[in-house]
Amino acid sequence: MLTVSHVTRRFGQKAAVDDISFSIEGPAFVGIIGRSGAGKSTFLRMMNRLTEATSGEIHVAGREILGLQGAARRQWQSQCAMIFQQFNLVPRLDVASNVLHGLLNRRPTLSTLFNIWSDADILRALEILDRLGIAEQAPKRAEALSGGQQQRVAIARALMQDPQIILADEPIASLDPMNAQVVMDTLKRINVEDGRMVIANLHTLDTARRYCDRVIGMRDGRIVFDGTPDQLSAGVARDIYGADASFNEASTSTALPSDHAPDRAYAERMLA
Ligand SMILES: Nc1ncnc2c1ncn2[C@@H]1O[C@H](COP(=O)(O)OP(=O)(O)OP(=O)(O)O)[C@@H](O)[C@H]1O
């Protein structure tokens, strides 16, 4: 269904994503892991056409999507909804309107600007909120909700687009563990119940292991691991995060050697 072929994105001399290729069959839940700067966000943003690729092709259901322009590009963007770490809601707007903004690419700008929605659209937004367990929040301003609730609103907005693929860029990085679990459970439900592909950049290994069918590890713009969660051994994780052999997932920062401290501290956080 999805084939990524030799995709590269350069910023000046630096390749943020460096000639990556992989395929995904069917509605899998795929996690992308890697240290900060590995190229995870750049890849998701290229898929969604928020960032242009320097070279390469991405085929989805036989259609090349990196070359799409104008209306076709916007249509693709609504078929592959994006969820961000910082939710990207309109804070002062009520929850239901935020969800309805998922239709942005599918209707005239003026209607969106003046918040004019059909009864059918409003009903659908409320049904989605109900499905995600936050229907009672519909009239509240988005900014009044907890982080976990806001991320569920962002997922509801994504579902409003009825996307084939959901791209989630560090969807739980700003959440406490309990809210993180609710959000990941929600994404998993959507993946399993609706058959929508989910590709999520994740910052903790245990989340990748728990929720993903497949994990892709990136380092310096390249894919250095592509396998199932049970193939993701501590040694493989060390390679991905650039930590040395003294490293293990249960280690604490005090157990780490002090040279290259920032890198190790980062790797430790990832491995925790
Ligand atoms: N717009 C840009 N201009 C210049 N360099 C960029 C730009 N966007 C990303 N980069 C660089 O590309 C590399 C990959 O960044 P990217 O954000 O994709 O990594 P990441 O794995 O998502 O990291 P993080 O987890 O911190 O978001 C980094 O070196 C980053 O500085």
From TrEMBL:
Q: Which GO terms describe its molecular function?
A: ATP binding
- This one is known as Phosphonate ABC transporter ATP-binding protein
Organism, scientific name:
Pseudogemmobacter faecipullorum
Q: Which residues form the ABC transporter domain?
A: 2-245
Answer yes or no on keyword Transmembrane.
no
InterPro entries cross-referenced by the UniProt entry = AAA+_ATPase, ABC_transporter-like_ATP-bd, ABC_transporter-like_CS, ABC_transpr_PhnC, MetN_ABC_transporter-like, P-loop_NTPase
Q: Please name one Pfam family that this protein belongs to.
A: ABC_tran
| Protein keywords | ATP-binding, Cell membrane, Membrane, Nucleotide-binding, Translocase, Transport
The cross-references to Gene3D superfamilies, in alphabetical order and at most eight, read:
P-loop containing nucleotide triphosphate hydrolases (3.40.50.300)
